[in-house]
Design goal:
Number of domains: 1
Distance between the termini: 18 Å
Number of strands: 0
Structural class: mainly alpha
Number of helices: 6
Shape: elongated
């Protein structure tokens, strides 16, 4: 009888997990830049970019942003460690990222919907990927 917990994932599992970690790492960096940008740093930016940083977002938006990116990054680390709890982290990331991106698309004028939609799709893919990986016995 085969022990399903010892099933080794294929190379493409690792490639997807690493690419997902890089993707979520960029999200963490975007959050940190936004959270720690000083007025002097904003003033040094081109005028078009200054407007983006001067928009005041509600506290819940900032919390959703933080949860989305940090749960996503932790979920990727859990994937690389082959842990089933990556699924719950990706669910939290999906819910909070969806709330955040829908808020942006509804409240910000002239927002290009490509990136917000792509973020939501990637979050949904990671949920599916984790569920499929668990079903195949790659996650413990």
């Amino acid at each position: 009888m085969t022990d399903i917990s010892n099933t080794k994932p294929p190379i493409w599992f690792w490639i997807i997990a690493v690419v997902a970690l890089i993707w979520n790492g960029m999200g963490v960096m975007a959050y940190l830049v936004r959270a720690f940008m000083t007025d002097d740093m904003i003033a040094a930016l081109p005028e078009e970019q200054q407007a983006e940083f001067l928009v005041e977002h509600p506290t819940w938006y900032t919390a959703a942003f933080a949860l989305a990116v940090f749960c996503g990054a932790l979920g990727c680390l859990a994937l690389l460690l082959r842990k089933k709890w990556a699924f719950m982290l990706f669910v939290i990331s999906f819910i909070t990222a969806t709330i955040q991106q829908v808020y942006l698309m509804v409240t910000v004028e002239d927002v290009n919907p490509v990136m917000p939609i792509m973020i939501i799709v990637v979050c949904a893919f990671l949920i599916w990927f984790t569920k499929m990986s668990t079903a195949k016995g790659w996650l413990k």
